Amino acid sequence: MHRKNVHSFETGSSADLRRPTRRSVAYCISLTVACASIVAPLAAAEAKTPAAMQAAALPRVIAVEGGSNFRDIGGYRTKDGRTVRFGLVYRSASTDNLTAADFRKIDSLGIRKFYDLRDAAERHPRRPAGVSVPPIQTWPDRITEPLDLSSAAAVELATEKGYAEMPKLYAPQIGQIFRQIARGDTPILYNCAGGKDRTGLTTALLLSLLDVPREMVIADYLASNRLLDPSKVAGDPAMGGIPPGMTLDPAVIAALSRSKASWLQASFAAIERNYGSLNAYWRLGLKLTPQEIASIRTRMLTKR
After folding, report:
1. pTM for the full model?
2. Half-sphere exposure of 228 toward its Cβ, with a 13 Å CA cutoff?
3. What single DSSP character describes residue 46?
4. The domain that contains 281 carries what CATH number?
5. Contact 199/20 with Cβ under 8 angstroms?
6. Residue 61 backbone phi and psi in degrees, to 5
7. What is the three-class DSSP state of 17?
8. How many domains is the chain partitioned into structurally?
9. 149 by DSSP, 3-state: which?
10. Do 83 and 297 form a contact (C-beta atoms < 8 A)?
11. How confident is the model over 234-283, as pLDDT tens digits?
C-alpha cells in the first residue's frame, strides 16, 4: 500500500495511467464538463424507480452559485414511519468555489462546521473576502493503492474495490461526524470533491443508522447522477488530479463520473463480511457508544 501525489506524475505511457490514487474515484468527476452529457442517461435510468421518484420529490436541493450536489439529507421516511428531520445535516460536492452569496446562504442555514473528506492535494479553497466561513475539519491524507485508468473496466473494478475498503479507511472521519451529530452541535455540512463517493457513503451510513429502508438509501446515493453539475467543480484543473494535456478515453471518464448501486452495495457487503452487521460496525468501526447512537436517532428523527 502506498500513496502517490496525483499532481506529480508524467504522461506518455500506459503505466502512467495507473498512478493516480484510488481517492481519484471520489473526485475525478471534475475532470471535464463533458461528463454532464454522460451522466444524463444514467440519471434518466435511475429516476424510474419508485424510491428514486420519492427522492426526486424531496425539497432538499440547496441552490448555490459556486458549488453542486448541495442538499439537505432530511425528508426520508424510516421503516417505523418516522421522518429524518430537515435542517440538521447537509452534504455537498467541493466547497472550494462557493461565492459570497453562497456563504450568506450557508450562514442563514446556521451551518456550524464543514467536514472536508478530501485529501490535501484536492483542496484549493478560494474564499471570497468579507464573508464568514464556518470552521473546516480536515484529516491527514489516506494511504491508498494506485487507481488503474487504462480502461473503463479497470476503473470500475478498482472503484468497487475502493468502495469495499472505504468503510474501514474512512471510519475515523465518519465516526467523528456522527459524534458531532450525537452532541447536537448541528447543523453541519460534509463534502468531498463530487459529493458522491466519500460523501455518498457517509450519507448512506447515516441514513442506515436512522433505519431508512435500503432501497431509499441507494436511491439517495444514485441521485448524484442527476444532481451533480460537473461544470461547478471543474474550475480548477488541479482538482481532477489529471495534468493538462493528458487524454483519457471517454469510456474511462464515464466510469469515473458515475455512481452505481453495486458500488455502494460493495461497501455494505464489506461491512457484513468484516464486522458481521451494521450494528457491530457502529460500535467496532465507528466507535460509537449505545448512548451516541440513541442520541443521533433522537435528534435526527421526528417522534412516532
Report:
1. 0.80
2. 40
3. H
4. 3.90.190.10
5. no
6. -80, 130
7. helix
8. 1
9. coil
10. no
11. 543 333 445 456 677 888 877 877 899 999 999 999 999 999 999 999 99
